[in-house]
Amino acid sequence: MSTSEWIGRTVAGWLPAGKRESKQPVVPDVQQEVRAAKAAADKGPPARSSRERLNATLRQKEEALSPRVLRRTLTELQAIVDPSVSEVEGGKRARGVAQWYSKATPEQRQDCWLLMSEQFAPDATKVRAAREQYELAVGTPDEGVAEIRMRKALVSPRTRLLQRFAVFPEGMRFLVDLRQDLMPALKSNKRLLALEAELENLFTTWFDVAFLELRRISWDSPASLVEKLIKYEAVHDIKSWGDVKNRLDSDRRCYGFFHPRLPDEPLIFVEVAFMNEIASSISPLLDESAEAVDLSKATTAIFYSISNTQPGLKGVSFGDSLIKRVVETLRSDFPKLKTFATLSPIPGFRGWLNKNASRMLEATPEKLKSQLGRAVGFEPASAEHVLSALDLMPTLPEKSVLRQWLLGCAAHYLGKELIEERPADPVARFHLGNGARVEHIHWAADMSGKGVKQSFGLMVNYLYDLRKLDRYRLGLAKGHVPVSDDVARLYF
Length: 492
Hints:
Elements: H1 3-14, H2 30-43, H3 50-54, H4 67-80, H5 87-103, H6 106-118, H7 124-137, H8 143-154, H9 157-165, H10 171-182, H11 193-206, E1 213-216, H12 223-232, H13 241-247, E2 252-258, E3 268-275, H14 283-286, E4 300-308, H15 319-333, E5 339-342, H16 349-363, H17 366-376, H18 383-389, H19 401-415, E6 418-419, E7 422-423, H20 426-433, E8 437-442, H21 449-455, E9 459-463, H22 469-477, H23 485-488
Parallel strand pairs: 4-5
Antiparallel strand pairs: 1-2, 2-3, 3-4, 6-7, 8-9
Helix pairs in contact: 4-5, 4-6, 6-11, 7-8, 10-11, 16-18
């Protein structure tokens, strides 16, 4: 019996009776088979797993490393986790592989990822046995012991491999960069998912806020650190040295979280301005010629820019802890501060409205809809008419019906539009998840090209009321977004 016949009979035996191959003759769909054959030819042969490639003698077209080099690379990776060598020696061997990796091509790096992901998985036999023992022990005095055995069985050689890479001084930087390189490839190669998940799990522990240091970044900080601030600023681009000096001046504050293994790299930072009221526009905060604020009299701290700097740490949350620590520090240094709020972009609003304008028009009261039609010159107004008219947004008067409608849509987007029970806007998701409230939506608050492209120039304040953070967070978990009365009045 040939291998293919054996596989066919075995699989058929697994199928339920109703699903097994019928004995009745089947008329083939020739056209469908031809189409499938053409599609398969266009797509090419499926990518081989690392196991198949290690057992081969020749590489295929899309493979970077030959089977011989792949086997040698695997041997070097296995040497890193050799139980007979110390952590220090394992770290030295890991450093050697990291040096090779730094010079490798993107395709060669992907081969290395595949080896790390597929060849260092937990022992399936041990995991299965430990799980069965645990299930039998549940509810008995042996349950705790069985759980410990199962936990040990689930610890993969991959975990030990990554831990050894973290031993040498530049190892943490190497792993963070490796994950950043790896993540774009996940959609096209699901064999890498295990490695990426392992890295995220380890980073969640290694970058826990208990191990992070809050440091102030000022104009007197090392020039290399200030340069990184310019590089990583993600909300309002820093245009010059005068701009960055203004943001780090004596009447401003900038704080970042730092990790001891990445001492000169802020993981996340927040820029703070001091005022006597909640800010309604970004321009005064970025104005280099504005007069310095008297910190002894300021009552309001405005967080106007929060930037994550390490894409390789995506999914590792420490932004909420940063804000809490900064608030504690500011309250201690400036007792007169009573209000803590943001002036935030609404990065997803314009893209969302372009897709949902028709739905919002259907929800618009008839009177307001008629006024919109007259304002744009078409009754009834369509989504295309309204969106086209909004291109004139900077010149719309205060009482414009278009302005009223756009603010109402923004209020709906921030206060009612949920995706999987979470706010649709990423910045809203961050601040509301930390216990803030949607406080004010401001017209023409950011008229930069980026601001207009993202949100028609609108910006929003999120208020951090320290007495109500837990209440708002609990309400959000139940699907209720906390908004102020001013924002609620904007709803249609």
